[in-house]
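Hey, can you fold this one?
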Amino acid sequence: MKQVSEWIARVALLLLGVSTLGANAQSPAANYPAKPVRIVIPFAAGGATDIIGRLLAQKLSDAWRQPVLVENRAGAGGTIGSEYVARSPADGYTLVMGGGTTHTAGPAVNPKTPYNPITDFTAVTLVSTFPNILVISTSVPANSIQQIIELLKANPGKYNFASSGAGGTPHLSAELFMMMTGTRMTHVPFKGSGQALTELMAGRIEVYFDNIASAWPLVQQGRIRALGVTGLERAPGAPNLPAIAEVLPGYEANSFVGLFMPAGVPADIPRRFAVETRRALQEPDVAKRMQELSATPVGSAPEEFSAFIRKDIERWRQVVAKAGIVIN
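Sure. Predicted structure:
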């Protein structure tokens, strides 16, 4: 009996070992990350996506004791960097910090987008949302939303508006504004927010709907003038600045940033990344910095972010159809 009992105990231990091995094999996130992680920013340095991406990367590096590197791959309204990530190995070590320009508004307006924002990516987490901000050159004779509307109506086609890339939320924010006010401006796209702001400060561009995070410091310095934010309510970081909706009821054109991996990444990895992102966003210094940027931290689960993306694509498709916007 003793020999039988010992044999049974050995078999039980063997089965337990096999079971544990199987569980580990089925959980790719168990040792993740085992090497440096790379977050691609598909825009030039200095914009809201870049600022928030670097802030998060540093916190994740500290938590994981594994480098989380940031790489800027700008161009074509963010599609160059986004496509690069979509074609990268589906191992969870290459992500893109995307947003409306790359994954919802952009694809909704541009049928030539070189990837499918739903099927070519794994949605990881919605990092934050924030309003855009209507800023103008200091040479423009307007000091309020109502005044810029009147000025544009009196001078159809005279003024230029910038964007950080055709089809992005800054571009469509302006298109929605023109559609709702019956005004007309000429679109001048740039490769990123930094270039657009430089031209705005120089007076070569008159109007820009930028991410509030990158434009607000220049407003505070008096180098450009802010007229309103694109959310339905005023922004926490600029409480004295009116929402455009206060003058133009129903106007709303918020932005967001979120993390995406290539399609096919084992589900445990994006789930872990989302949990760690949420934890980082809850740290006091991060929360304070996000408030300064007028950004609302989220840190959603992958499934929630995926549903958010689908809904936002449909919202912008309706705007594009009504405004008759075509990107060639």
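The beta strands are 37-41, 68-72, 94-99, 121-136, 160-163, 186-189, 207-211, 225-229, 254-262, 296-297. Let me know if you want another pass with a different chain boundary.
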